[in-house]
Amino acid sequence: MTAEKPEPSAPAPTDFIRDIVAAHVAEHRYPRIVTRFPPEPNGYLHIGHAKSICLNFGIARENRGQCNLRMDDTNPTKEDVEYVESIIADVQWLIAGWADHCLGFKLKGQTPEMRPVDGQPDFYLAATAAMPGGAPPSALALEPFYASDYFGQIYDYALTLIRKGQAYVCDLSPEETERYRGSPDQPGMDSPFRGRTVAQNLDLFQRMKAGEFPNGARTLRARIDMTAPNIWLRDPVIYRIRHAEHHHTGAAWCIYPMYDFAHCLSDYIEGVTHSICTLEFEVHRPLYDWILTSLDLPRPLPHQYEFARLNVGYTVMSKRKLLQLVQEKIVNGWDDPRMPTICGLRRRGVPASALRDFAYNIGVTKFDSLTDVAVLEHSIREELNQSALRRLAVLRPVKVVLTNIPAGDVIPCTAINHPANDAAGTRPLALTREVFIEADDFQENPPPKYFRLRPGGEVRLKYACIIKCDEVVKDAAGQLVELRCTADLASRTGGPNAGRKIKGTIHWVSAVQAIDAEVRLYDRLFTVPEPGAGADFKEFINPHSLETVTAKLEPPLRTARIEERYQFERLGYFTLDADSRPDHLVFNRTITLKDAWAKAPGAK
RNA sequence: UGCCCGAUGGUGUAAUGGUAGCACAACGGACUCUGACUCCGUUUGUCUAGGUUCGAGUCCUAGUCGGGCAGCCA
Predict the structure, then answer these.
(1) Pairing state of beta strands A458-461 and A505-506?
(2) Are A548 and A521 within 8 A, CB to CB?
(3) What is the pTM of this model?
């Protein structure tokens, strides 16, 4: 069980984009605020997307608006349903209980309807009513929006542009197109096909659609200005020929619109008001606006706003690099708990609320920054400290024999489930003659200020009693076999000497009752703050990013379930892994507790 | 050397012409049956040079540094 914490009552975030939205709300510029989260289904979502999701859904949520989930699927050669499914699941998980009422989905199979505005033809596709929290969209015959659902309308818009003389079919090869484009400090040259008549263009474009030409033979280009200082205004390609099966539209098309042409129109069709994207699209904004204004559309136009993408220390964020980690089996799949993917973080045990808190803390600006992982770690610990139930577990067991407790005796103890939440209750623990303690909690020749167990020293077994180390038993090779100690039963919790002052308190489990579990201890995947900065990020892979141990757990952990998160006292936060089976438990360490001792000069 | 964008402690962010604040990190202390949590405290900042103004982190000009843009990718 996990104690539910209400969403932090932090004040609503502010940032330059929310300021803009607030101003628009104040002047009633739009009847309703509509944002969208438009991933291309060619990879798994990562924590950088989480920032965008929290921004877009956050704005919708704060303004009683809606945020459409839209597959930006205009390139059939790179996309796959595997990715659309994972994207839907990740988004729903991230916003569950927070913004699911703002999530815009549509009826399955629905496409834009022709709805004249003031006598002018217009295409529009509204989201259906709000989704009940967490329900799989398929169960309700709902699905996300797809840019590919608008191919028909986008094609019509292209025809309109051609008729207005603002688009033409160009026969230049890819190489020639590049050459004609010029360079940033060198103006481009007009394509020799720029002067084709409307009739020729219409004919050629329709034949492109009909499949008469091979890949790359022709393109449709916007006719803007080959000498524009902004390269994206130098007659950009807006349609290309691709004889390829599309994951959503099948074989219906062999020409596909480019991002710039499809994106602004998709926003318009869905009635998006604020189209929020990352900084690299800033130079595309004039084109976004050019397309929309060129079409004389009857409804209010969406506008694009840009913010800086997220960078986090000691990780990589590019889809290409993440894909490489997966394909080269450096990690075990997209949801490997070391991955910065949403499903990886989820599997690792990071709660969605921690990711939201993180997004809240880092803010939104146009500054290209590198966020310290400590900020993420802080959000995770803060959330888990409040919600995770406490348990005792020993990762690297050392046997302790309590010589004054007869074998077979069971001394009942009571452990608190959550120190800050009485309602979480207590649970019984059994103190027996043999227990395990953590290897780190005993040292034969300890450094100064070490207040755990040492020969002749005392330490408290949490929730049980104080023990004194009488004897260190080693084998012929000098390896530690067991510690023989005496238990001061009068110091038992609730006993007459319970208040006896002792500096160290350590965790333990009963050797006879403890259950075994595989525990996976994760560390950062890279050894340097910016692994992606150099030529080859793989040379910075941390060889110790995963360590597996066989731990001893207190028995109630046998019934732990996925998505339940526990604090193993003094160690960190842990959660059951999907690989776990009843006869072979597997736990992931989400994150360690902060450890002031580990930083102390005396600690090894 | 074309166009666009940015620059506030170690890191991230706020201050919207009027006392440079918050978070993380670091460091010190208190508390502690988790070396956790919590609490208290400390250190560290407006890229540079001019200008406007009673007053500039904020406005203007120039420079410096950083990022983005030349896919028939998004």
Answers:
(1) parallel
(2) yes
(3) 0.96
